[in-house]
Amino acid sequence: MPHRHPRGPRGLAGQAVTAVRPRPRRHRRDPGTRVGGGNRQIGQRVAIAWLAGACGECRYCISGRETLCEQQRNSGYSVDGAFAEYVAVPAAFATPVPDDVSSRDAAPLTCAGVTTYKAIKVAGVAPAETVAVFGIGGLGHLALQYARIFGGFTIGVDVTAEKLALAKELGADHVVDASAGDPAEAIQALGGADVAVALAASPASFDQAFRSLRRGGRLVCVALPADGTMSLPIFDTVLGGKSVIGSIVGTRNDLADVFALHAAGRTKVVAVDRKLDEVNDSIADVLAGRVPARVVFEM
Ligand SMILES: [Zn+2]
């Protein structure tokens, strides 16, 4: 068998050691259609998420946990966000939007979608487990759908009839009205939840979500109530083998998964459309709970 020289540095085991001169590399440069390290094309539709940049070198970045990077930059927080006609973002952090995903749907998926997809993923939802989603709004309506995609049975928990109706429409197996009594008791009466996802910014709902867990259950904390703290019963947590997990948005790869699922028709986005100059009124409407799920601004 003819001996083939290795073309470049390789492992040495089992090979004749040959001095290999690297071939001169021909650099091929494209005179301008590429816009950066992310291999983006001019005119390509892209999504800009909360994670506007990360260092790419720390233990979190190189282990697939870039959303934990301590050098990260965040859209609309530490760098300018996208409530504007034009925005600058590193190409590598502009995630391509597939043709089968409309820009209108891509916007909520880039925040609420990737955040709840990740929450369901880190909870390790397995088929036939029960997932209780606390808060059926912009995040919750997508969390329910991802829980179903992972094979879970779902319980939607909210305090308004419209949100509970939305949960049913999206295929929730049960809905629980948290304004009508203790939702944890109602969920325990159904057998308890394997996973409870806390999406409502109210510390009381975190407590309810934890108490709705059955043994081996996982509470996934996503909402950020101001000054919120949780008090956990130690005996119940230890003897019941329960976990509390914090989940913050998702990586660029998670967002690519979210787009792929949507392009395949596996998720549905509920949103209302507004003009960009209505942004301040819209924020007030969201805070007052006057918006069914997500607001999308048109340019
Ligand atoms: Zn990093």
From TrEMBL:
<dbReference type="InterPro" id="IPR013154">
    <property type="entry name" value="ADH-like_N"/>
</dbReference>
<keyword id="KW-0479">Metal-binding</keyword>
<dbReference type="InterPro" id="IPR036291">
    <property type="entry name" value="NAD(P)-bd_dom_sf"/>
</dbReference>
<dbReference type="Pfam" id="PF08240">
    <property type="entry name" value="ADH_N"/>
</dbReference>
<keyword id="KW-0862">Zinc</keyword>
<feature type="domain" description="Alcohol dehydrogenase-like N-terminal">
    <location>
        <begin position="39"/>
        <end position="99"/>
    </location>
</feature>
<keyword id="KW-0560">Oxidoreductase</keyword>
<dbReference type="InterPro" id="IPR011032">
    <property type="entry name" value="GroES-like_sf"/>
</dbReference>
<comment type="similarity">
    <text>Belongs to the zinc-containing alcohol dehydrogenase family.</text>
</comment>
<dbReference type="Pfam" id="PF00107">
    <property type="entry name" value="ADH_zinc_N"/>
</dbReference>
<dbReference type="GO" id="GO:0004022">
    <property type="term" value="F:alcohol dehydrogenase (NAD+) activity"/>
</dbReference>
<feature type="region of interest" description="Disordered">
    <location>
        <begin position="1"/>
        <end position="38"/>
    </location>
</feature>
<dbReference type="InterPro" id="IPR013149">
    <property type="entry name" value="ADH-like_C"/>
</dbReference>
<feature type="domain" description="Alcohol dehydrogenase-like C-terminal">
    <location>
        <begin position="138"/>
        <end position="261"/>
    </location>
</feature>
<protein>
    <recommendedName>
        <fullName>alcohol dehydrogenase</fullName>
        <ecNumber>1.1.1.1</ecNumber>
    </recommendedName>
</protein>
